[in-house]
Amino acid sequence: MELTVVMPCLNEAETVEVCVRKALACMEEHGVQGEVLIADNGSTDGSQQLAREAGARVVHVEEKGYGNALMGGIRAARGKYVIMGDADDSYDFTSLMPFVEQLRDGADLVMGNRFKGGIAPGAMPPLHRYLGNPVLSFVGRLFFPSVIGDFHCGLRGFRRDSILRLGLQTSGMEFASEMVVRSTLAKLDVREVPTTLSPDGRSRPPHLRSWRDGWRHLRFLLLYSPKWLFFYPGLVMMILGLVAGTALTFGPVEIGELAFDVDTLVGSSALVVIGFQAVLFAVFTKVYAAEEGFLPESRRIRKLIDIVSLEKGLIAGGLLALAGVVGLVMSLVHWQVRSFGELDPRESLRLVVPSATALVMSFQTIFAALFVSILGIRRSRETSMDVAAQAAEEAAEAVTREEAAKKEAAEAVTSEESTPAS
């Protein structure tokens, strides 16, 4: 079978029948061997029976959620290709061939683009059309090397085996973003075709919750991009803190009518420490995600781990600790010169704050080196090649044992024949 059209369904009695008939008519018109599969997520309005009567196959998906329903349908699909779309009659299931043609041409994922194909009046709320979708799609293109202009189009086609290999995990509406992001990171062939969006045919409110589901999409994009979540913000804070702190260590800084002194020095120290911690978290996340298979392994991160060994990390942390201790000793000397009496904070803090900062960062560096070393311990994973090699070895051993048994039997027969009868 070439194509399965998967429609997630939760109480879509008003529209599911017409969607099924449109998809089946499109496949029949163009000679595509396929089926329509309804991934029902617990409908109580008779949607299942209406879909069956229209010619669809219905599978029940126990786990609630848009992503769960779709993954249940994708796993149950019999087609080489899958086209997914909502069962609310907002997408045009009579125009599936642009997706099929791109898939036949070798694409792994073909996204619909509603902004290029056309959005009918009233089909998309203004909040989604002018803020939600454009902003989230821009963030997706910024965070990941993607050219997709509409990350959240519900009508999309893909090779079933390619998507299943990704191991998609999200259960809710963010499943739409995960499919694009994981396909892009896996360097699959991702393409885009124009499609249209019409007002849905339901009388009830949609399942989508604008702010909740928008946040879930944004949260997913951030969590899958440690660079933008941790590294870039941390690097900016570190640079700002180092520049300001270095300048203030040698004395007050005046810019126009503004005067910056030791209070700002303390804030600069905090920026350096927080920024450094964020950068370390970016490294931790990348290493962990690569080891667990959530993100593809980064050659730069692997090279960094190989270069910055545990021993080098301990040495760097030790040097920072030494610098901090030296600074604290100098502050004690400064206090001794003042006969251990009252100190001017504007002078003493210029020694204490940088020293304390160096000590804090020294322990962060040492702990980070230990933690990255633990994360970098590679576990032995049994691959398909390992399984095949093991099976071949077992088969060869079985053949060897069988040949040995036959040889022993033949030798026994020969021995009996050569023994004279009594």
From TrEMBL:
Segments crossing the lipid bilayer: 229-250, 270-289, 310-335, 355-377
Residue ranges, annotated region (Disordered): 399-422
Glycosyltransferase 2-like domain location: 4-163
SUPFAM superfamilies: Nucleotide-diphospho-sugar transferases (SSF53448)
Membrane is among the record's keywords: yes
Keyword presence, Cell division: no
Keywords from the named record: Membrane, Transferase, Transmembrane, Transmembrane helix
InterPro entries: Agl6_TM_C (IPR058718), Glyco_trans_2-like (IPR001173), Glycosyltransferase_2 (IPR050256), Nucleotide-diphossugar_trans (IPR029044)
Recorded GO MF terms: transferase activity
Location of the Low-salt glycan biosynthesis hexosyltransferase Agl6 C-terminal transmembrane region domain: 283-376
Comp. bias (Basic and acidic residues): 399-410
Low complexity: compositionally biased ranges: 411-422
Pfam families given in the database record: Glycos_transf_2 (PF00535), GT2_TM_C (PF26629)
Family: Belongs to the glycosyltransferase 2 family.
Name of this protein: Glycosyltransferase involved in cell wall bisynthesis
Organism expressing this protein natively: Nonomuraea pusilla
